[in-house]
């Protein structure tokens, strides 16, 4: 897959902290209940920490008590891409990536019964996001 922003592995390593690189480029989740945005209630727009693309807003953020920031919809439907990853043990949660740079954001869960308009939970790593507060 090609993206609007393409960089070499060396460029990503130079621009991201080791923890950010591990999540965004290595597709590894941060530990639950450790991310800076897990419990944030501040209003604003959440952008991709790797490329700055606007991905989610605080309006779609909800408390799922799962240990990671949760959103019921992206800011724009084309701001993220969702891909099913293969597993020998049955279906795994689809992976959510930034549509602009391909960085790993988290996973998508559906049909869990949350009282949200979409019954979807975009379970996103804080290390994948950067919050721009509404008042800035």
Question: What would you note in describing this structure?
Answer:
Strands 3-4-8-7-6-5 form a 6-stranded antiparallel sheet, with no helix packed on it. The longest helix is centred in the first third of the chain and has 7 residues, at 9-15. The model has no long low-confidence stretch (mean pLDDT 93). Strand 1 and strand 2 form a beta hairpin. The chain is globular, with a radius of gyration of 14 Å. Helices cover 10% and strands 28% of the residues. By secondary structure, it is mainly beta.
- Enumerate the strands of the largest sheet in spatial order, edge to edge or round the barrel: 3-4-8-7-6-5
Question: Roughly how much helix do the residues carry, as a percent range?
Answer: 10-25%
Largest sheet: 6 strands, antiparallel
Mean pLDDT over the full residue set: 93
Strand content: 25-35%
* Unreliable sequence segments: none
Radius of gyration, in angstroms, nearest whole number: 14 Å
Overall spatial form: globular
Order of helices and strands: HHEEEEEEEEE
Number of strands: 9
Count of runs of 4 or more consecutive helical residues: 2
Structural class, from helix and strand content? mainly beta
Separation of the first and last Cα atoms:
34 Å
């Amino acid at each position: 897959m090609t993206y609007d922003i393409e960089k070499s592995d060396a460029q990503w390593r130079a621009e991201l902290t080791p923890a950010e690189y591990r999540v965004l480029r290595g597709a590894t989740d941060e530990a639950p209940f450790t991310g800076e945005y897990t419990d944030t209630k501040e209003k604003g727009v959440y952008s991709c920490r790797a490329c700055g693309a606007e991905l989610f807003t605080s309006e779609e953020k909800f408390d799922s008590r799962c240990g990671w920031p949760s959103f019921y919809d992206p800011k724009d439907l084309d701001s993220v891409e969702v891909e099913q990853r293969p597993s020998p043990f049955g279906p795994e949660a689809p992976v959510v990536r930034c549509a602009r740079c391909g960085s790993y954001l988290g996973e998508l869960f559906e049909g869990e019964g949350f009282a949200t308009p979409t019954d979807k939970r975009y379970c996103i790593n804080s290390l994948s996001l950067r919050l721009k507060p509404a008042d800035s």
